[in-house]
Amino acid sequence: MNPRTMPNWSVEDSAALYGIRKWGAGSFDLSSDGEVTVKASFPSGEVTVSLMEIIRGIEARGHAMPVLLRIENLLDARIGLLNETFRASINRAGYGGEYRGVFPIKVNQQCHVIGEIVRFGAPYGHGLEAGSKAELVLALANLREGGLLICNGYKDREFIDLGLWARKLGFRCFFVIESPAELPLIIERSRALGIQPLIGVRIKVSSRVGGLWTETSGDRSSFGLSTAQLITVVDTLKENGMLDCLELLHCHLGSQIPDIRDIRAGVLEACRYYADLVREGAPLSCLDLGGGLAVDYIGARANHVHSSNYTLEDYCRAIVETVMSTLDPQGIPHPHLVTESGRATVAYSSILLFNILDITHFEAVSLPESLPEPSHERVRDLFTIHKNLDSANLRERYETAVQFRDEIRDLFKIGQISLRERSLAENIYLAVAQGIAVRLDSLPEASPGLNGLRDSLADIYYGNFSVFQSLPDTWAIGQVFPVMPIHRHRERPVREAIISDLTCDCDGKLDSFIGAEGERRTLPLHPLQPGEEYYVGVFLMGAYQETLGDLHNLFGDTHVVSVRINEIGGFDVMEEIPGDSIADVLSYVEYQPETLFEEFRTTAEKAVRRGKISVAERQKLLEEFSASLSGYTYYEK
Ligand SMILES: *Cc1c(COP(=O)(O)O)cnc(C)c1O
To answer: Which CATH number do you get for residue 413?
Structure first.
């Protein structure tokens, strides 16, 4: 049956199946013609654009898939929302300080992204956080005068000098001290240059947080000062008459903290430090609570590594309330609040788009009515299971079929069964497995021991992308991103699949997806239509993925296209950055494309001399070699 004409499936079913309204945070949805849409808000109202329309626009501009699509409006909206929500919580609670966000550059260093954050964040005084010299350099070139700049990480003399000059230029540049060794150098350089530094101290809170980054907090965290070190820093500042430079207390509990209670506990502990440092005489005025604001990747609203059990509003309120309730009884003025939200700021704005190149099905093909004579006894046994399959004893029959299949493979290895017989047997096995899977559907309850059966029959869809280049966290830490087709949502997705990338690596795959009841191993997808591309998107992947990615199998950067949705319901292409060519990636691993061409030309010329190819063929060959060098590293049609 043609799935396009299948009854009983609607866009609503698709929306529920892929959970788009749960993880999409109101930005993503489906249109009535079954395409994924993105929404942007304007003073005049909301505008919705289909991603298929954007894909067509990108392809018409000459960029083949895969493409990393950035939607500027979503980035702007997140910065606005973060600042406005803190502002509202502060006003509602009568809190005495202000909110200042900083964007941690490491989460997405791309020029266009930082430029956009600085531009859109300017009215809110949104600053930047730098964790290395290179990040400091780019922050100084981007930030505006008066901007807040938090410097974490280890600092050498060059870093410190640059930061001190930034003070002189008018930046609010804080050195956050992570280790006692940094302080003497800061004191020495500030004396030498005659510039007063702004100093922060990073503490290690002992409250442990849940999630994938628990190591960031606690005694054994490699960041921050122990209490003994903190006392040393305070005493050294006092001895040097510089305690008045200590204006900021910093702590970072970890990234993607799923439980609001952990955030409250961490803030509470930080406030205890804050109060005692004030009593020590430090003129603290800023409390920097680092990152950790989670993204609900699976839309479950739960205390789960890929989710979060709180909203942005809950987060802001928890911080404001905890600080007030801890400091008020001690009569300590409310500090300005700083957070370094990276993930929650940029995750939403990027989508990886790719097309499907091919599919492998695990299905029996054309089984004979009866076995050829002679057939091995084991093959005959397997065939009997196939012929007599009904709904009884499914688990037992499945286990026996697996056992027979494995025995047949062993018999092949010792030469007792031919390649054709083995092929026939594996085909019969697939028929049995499929027959069982179909019958399982009609059983009232789940069958223990048979859960893996359906996964083992799932299709493999080959996607035109590299996990290692574009989605490194899925491989490195088992990150789950929302994945779904961009179109055809009026049709029932009748296939169950995992998605494999183009690398020759068994880790290069997506096989963990969002299901209605937690994670699932396979993703429902549509069959390919002849002559038609099938587009899939990976959502919420704007944080950390772009620079952590690598050149495994020499798949390079994808094309990047930034669009801005406009008020009249269209979109403007703001920036197009071509991805790496083959020559680019070869030069990253120290080849010189000109030399490679020269060497290949010599080989071709020798072949002409030996009469293997004609001069015309040589010419054609060299043209193709040259075209490949300048071509995309991904599959081109
Ligand atoms: C990584 C990091 C952040 C960003 O954390 P998110 O959870 O992405 O918001 C903020 N501050 C510091 C010090 C970090 O190391």
So the answer is: 1.20.58.930
CA of 71 to the centre of ligand 1 (A): 22
353 and 500 inside one domain? yes
CA 600–ligand 1 middle distance (angstroms):
48
For residue 343, which atom of ligand 1 is closest to its CA?
Answer: 8
Decide if 368 is inside a domain: no
Query: How many CB atoms sit inside 10 A of residue 397's CB?
Result: 19
pLDDT one-digit tens code per residue, 183-220: 999 999 999 999 999 999 999 988 777 777 666 666 66
Tell me, yes or no, whether 81 lies in a domain.
Answer: no
Q: How far is CA 123 from the centre of its chain?
A: 28
Query: From atom 5 of ligand 1, which residue's Cα is the shortest distance away?
Result: 291
Task: Note the pLDDT tens digit of each residue in 301-333.
Answer: 999 999 999 999 999 999 999 999 999 999 999
Nearest Cα residue to atom 4 of ligand 1 = 291
Task: Determine the 3-state secondary structure of 461 from DSSP.
Answer: strand
pLDDT bin (cut points 50, 70, 90) of residue 1 is very low
Are the C-beta atoms of 174 and 151 separated by less than 8 Å?
Answer: yes
C-beta of residue 503 within 8 angstroms of C-beta of residue 466: yes
How many structural domains comprise the chain? Answer: 4
Residue with tokens 């990480």: 153
Are 299 and 210 contained in the same domain?
yes
Q: What pLDDT score does 69 carry?
A: 98
* Protein residue whose Cα sits closest to atom 2 of ligand 1: 291
Tens digits of residue pLDDT in 228-263: 999 999 999 999 999 999 999 999 999 999 999 999
Q: How far does residue 291's CA lie from ligand 1's centre (Å)?
A: 4
Q: Which domain holds residue 401?
A: 377-454
In a domain, 80, yes or no: no
CA of 344, closest atom in ligand 1: 9
Q: What residues does ligand 1 touch, defined as CB less than 6 Å away? A: 104, 106-107, 129, 152, 252, 255-256, 290-293, 340-343, 543
Output the CA 307–ligand 1 centroid distance in Å: 17
In a domain, 372, yes or no: no
CA distance 287 to 53: 45
392 — pLDDT class (breaks 50, 70, 90):
confident
Strand boundaries in 341-452, DSSP class E = 350-360
- Three-class SS state of 115: helix
